[in-house]
Amino acid sequence: MIMDKKILLCVTGGIAVYKAAALTSKLVQAGAQVKVILSESAEKFVTPLTFQALSRNEVFTDTFDEKNPHVIAHIDLADWADLILVAPATANTIAKLANGIADNMITTTMLAATAPVWIAPAMNVHMYDHPAVKKNLSILAEYGYQFIEPSEGYLACGYVGKGRLEEPEKIVELIRSFFAKDERKQLIGKTVVVTAGPTREKIDPVRFISNHSTGKMGFAIAEEAKRQGAHVVLVSGPVQIPAPAGVELIKVESGEEMYNTVIKFYESADVVIKTAAVADYRPKITYDQKVKKQTGDAVIDLERTKDILFELGQRKKNQVLVGFAAETENLEEYARIKLTKKNADLIVANNVKTAGAGFGTDTNIVTLFKRSGAVIELPVMSKKDVAKKIIEEVTSLLKDMGKNANS
Ligand code: PMT
User: Fold this and answer.
1) Which of 51, 57, 110, 274 could form an SS bridge with 36, CB 3.0 to 4.6 Å?
2) pTM of the prediction?
3) Of the listed 157, 180, 300, 337, which one is catalytic?
4) To the nearest whole number, what is the mean pLDDT of the chain?
């Protein structure tokens, strides 16, 4: 599974760099292509030549040492990698990454990276326990980074406790199973329609009714469905974030446009996931010219928009239908009502008043309500990890319907 995978190993300055050298050797023996960046502190422990000899690739140490005039090294390395591993990751580098600092070759490359990132911390037991380190690690979790937890044992500083870089053999195993999982893509041959973002309901050419949705949750779902091999149609209201690579993006503005687009793709869809925050009401009249202000109050008459999820539930044949519920109270009660009323297979409920959940954040706190009656309450997670859970559920619902990947 590791054969020819491109692994970018970022080595920062701790005594565990000797394990990073062993890791490089093991990865190369397993058939991976390994490129290494050393931080200035790592170079105090070991020279680039060690990693060059083990990886059979040139080693990068300095952002401004542009070895190839045709590319910008840190962008090129970031684009090249299938997986980026920071091992050992010192408290200092973890802090820089958590704060978006880009002051050396590793941190600059990391900011440019879109590949999955794994962080393998290694440090003194008390450093690892320090609230600042914990906070920085939780920020990185919000960014979607994964962690190889340090193991417990004798530390070079003389303490015994948690802080040792995981053994190279174990790290290779984790990488192996990561790529193995990646190769068992669950949604090959499936079409997944995801809606995301807000809708805008026009009052006149300069004003509209909308909401706080940024599209982050829906885009993360689209990205994960794509990663699992699906053909993804992403129907999005106006947002400021880039669409995941490889998805078919259809930009819409109003709820009516979203309705028409989703209905168009519904017949051919295997799965529809309705993450968008669709306006429930729109102005009864849309003015062609800017409405001039008058003395006194103004009243806008509103009418109901079409409930897209409800309509999909009515027309459902063999699609898996996933709805969201954005609530501020009585989460469970309202989510269950939506599950039944909209004939959905799964409702993803979030309390949008809770810190770390709902609109605009990089994390979410959701509870999944299934038709079977099962309820899965998830802790605070990055929206990318929430997306993974939702896609896992969708995959198992497809399997229940006898619609396995490729079938
Ligand atoms: O985009 P982010 O900033 O990341 O924020 C994510 C989110 C808060 C928007 C997301 O997690 C979320 O909760 N999405 C659903 C928002 C919503 O409109 O919820 P609702 O409870 O009002 O609607 C229930 C379901 O019906 C939703 O699946 C919605 O897409 C759908 N609906 C609602 C109204 C309508 N006219 N048509 C619909 O299809």
Assistant:
1) 51
2) 0.65
3) 157
4) 95
